[in-house]
Design brief:
single chain; Nucleoside Triphosphate Pyrophosphohydrolase; 5 helices; about 30% strand
Length: about 180
C-alpha cells in the first residue's frame, strides 16, 4: 500500500489549506492508520469513498447526480473498492456514473466530508469518509445516466452556492470552487 504515505501527505496539505477543518482532517488521518483496511466497503465501522467535483470546460458548471439511494442532488462518486489512490477511484466513478470520456483528475484533495449512510438492503448504517477531487470534463459534455442515478444535470456553480436548498456539502464545495482565485 505505497499510496498510503502519499494520502497521508495529501491530508496534511489539505489541513494547511483549510485550517478551519482540522477536526475533520484528524478523523480522516485516524482512519488511514487503522489496522483494518479502510479502503473496502466491508469495513462497516467506516471506510473511504471517493467523489468528484466534475466541472465543465468553462469552470462555471458542475455535473450532479440525483442519487438513487439517497434521493439528493450530489456530486458523483462511490466506494474505493480497495483502490488506495483515491484520486483514481474518483476518476473511475466519474467515468462510470456519467459515461463521459476524456476526463482529467487533479491529484489534490478538493474537499473532505464524513457522513452517515443510512441502512439499505441489509447493510447497516455506517460512516463514509468521502475524499473529493476536481475532475475536468473534456470537449464532450453529453453524459449518460447510469443505474446508480435517477438523473444527471449540469448545474451552475454560482446557483448552487447561493441556493439554501442545495445539499450543505455541495454548497461548501461550490463556495470553495468560487473562492479558489
Amino acid at each position: 500500500m505505497h499510496a498510503i504515505p502519499a494520502l497521508a501527505a495529501d491530508f496534511q496539505d489539505y489541513a494547511v489549506r483549510w485550517p478551519g477543518e482540522a477536526d475533520v482532517v484528524a478523523l480522516f488521518q485516524e482512519l488511514l492508520t487503522d489496522t483494518e483496511n479502510p479502503f473496502v466497503r466491508e469495513r462497516l465501522a467506516g471506510h473511504f469513498t471517493a467523489s468528484c467535483w466534475l466541472v465543465s470546460a468553462d469552470g462555471a458548471r458542475v455535473l450532479l447526480t440525483h442519487h438513487r439511494k439517497l434521493g439528493l442532488w450530489l456530486q458523483l462518486g462511490g466506494h474505493a473498492d480497495g483502490q488506495c489512490e483515491l484520486h483514481l477511484a474518483a476518476l473511475r466513478e466519474a467515468q462510470e456514473e456519467s459515461g463521459l470520456q476524456g476526463l482529467t483528475v487533479v491529484n489534490q484533495i478538493f474537499d473532505l466530508d464524513r457522513h452517515r449512510i443510512p441502512e439499505h438492503k441489509g447493510v447497516p448504517e455506517h460512516w463514509h469518509y468521502d475524499v473529493r477531487y476536481v475532475v475536468h470534463v473534456g470537449e464532450d459534455e453529453a453524459y449518460t445516466v447510469s443505474e446508480e442515478s435517477l438523473d444527471l444535470a449540469w448545474r451552475t456553480i454560482d446557483e448552487l452556492a447561493q441556493n439554501a436548498a442545495t445539499d450543505p456539502s455541495v454548497r461548501r464545495m461550490a463556495g470553495k470552487w468560487l473562492a479558489r482565485g
